[in-house]
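Ligand: fe (ii) ion. Inputs:
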Amino acid sequence: MKRRDFLVKSSAAGVSLVALSACNGAGSGGEEVVTATSDGNAGGPGVAGTPGLAKPAMPEWGGPSPFQHGVASGDPLARQVILWTRITAEGLDEVPVIVRVSRDPEFSDVVYEGMGYARSQADYTVKIDAMLPEANTTWFYQFESLGYFSAIGRTKTTAHGHQSVEHLRLAVMACANYSYGFFNAYRKVAFRRDLDAVLFLGDYIYEYGPGEYGDPEVEALRPLDPPHEIVTLSDYRRRYALNRTDQDLQECHRQHPFICVWDDHEFADNTWSDGAANHNEGEGDFGDRKRAAVQAYYEWMPIRPVLPDREVRIYRSFEFGQLASLMMLDTRLIGRDQQTDSPVTARDRNRSLLGDDQQSWLFEQLEHSQSRGAQWHLLGQQVMLAPLTLGALPDTPNLDLGGGAQVNYDQWDGYETSRRALLGRIEAMGLDNAVVLTGDIHSSWAMDVSLDPGNWFAYNRFTGEGSIAVEFVTPAVSSPGAPTKGISDLAKAFLIPANPHIKWLDFYHRGYMILDVTPERCQADWFHLETVSEPSNQEHFAMGWYTASGDNHIQASKVPCAPKHNAPPLAPEHNVQQEALA
Ligand SMILES: [Fe+2]
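Predicted complex:
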């Protein structure tokens, strides 16, 4: 649509421009267009919040469309959603960017108009926290700057906490290594019309340089930028920019709001609060690297900072009406003590995975979710919560290897005190329907969660009795698991008898999970890709596992959940030729 047409349509509809602070929470109904401008935060992308939209004077620009990295939305609330884009216009700074939100993809019913600035200090990224008039509604949005329109994006507000919601459907994704595979999973998820949001559980980028962690054949087609391990702010920004040139990822962002959290590779392999396995002294101070990585993350991801001045705090919660609460955790950066190889140290009472502040917050959130009557309590997080052992020995607190020798101390297994605190709290609260969603491990798992799965008195492997929660682990978008199906089957044959709470696993396939939630049950459907070595449309339904409300343990489903009713249309196909204004 041309700008002229937009203005004509707006006045024909009798709309008035009303300045409104994004902080006051009051959207507008009816015919009004809500407007807001952004002054941005020092060091952060602009977020709309200042009243008084004055039509900006656009700098001269004779170059191509500045919207080279697409559009994105995220952190949906009942009346707010973050809208993101980036301006690529060599030589320009302080570039005004306008965004409009409409009920329809033709923009005949604009409900919000906001403005931000693309500035060098935020790597020319722009975020606008749009105020929208209705909860639980699909919206279309489009940016305008330097004489161009962006592609049209599509997003959705969540239901108010008190609203009844019959059906929620989320894609759950993680681990997208650019040089290990094509982003076919993003493409498949992009075209699912009936999603409420995409949860991204971390490893959105990887820090490695060429030849360090990639498929050589894919890497030859998808060379890394910058061509070395990323350490500085400029490096991290370039790596996000590289991933965001991928058309499949752009399409996924364009069609769905994302709710994101980081894992380790947004920093460096096996990060903890004060260091990382893949960080050495030659790479400078870890604190500097961490700050650079956090800054680039907030610039490039469609995420709303929890605290404007403390962006390192990423843990936060969302409500999907009465149906579900979602708590997004940071098991990586804010409170994690250093990893250990020792089962004795793993049980140290002073060790923490979440840190005290986050753990207190989480317990408060669980209590809030229970007291407001939410049916499901979803935890979006990084590393596996359920124990993973080499032998199903009963747990005895005084025996070092109680519960069996653990396999991976980077998971909750390395932080036994934190796990006991969380599961103990869920039990003490009498909380049903806690569902843990996990990434990080490049494989697919369906599990009951018990503190002591090898102990018949604590957990019945046949009935699931004694299970405290359930856990579903999403496979990687492109990062590798087992190199062959044979090795995957071997590992499975070895691990399942030793871990009776693990009902299903697949180490081989890349793909994603669809989490389908109704008042009666919460089901995860795994969709696996045929390949990531080349662009491909081929996927198959691998398996479904669900927990019925009140059960707290899982059961198999041989068929995937039926789609949601009345799925809204996707944002229309984007024609670059039509981007330029007349
Ligand atoms: Fe990963």
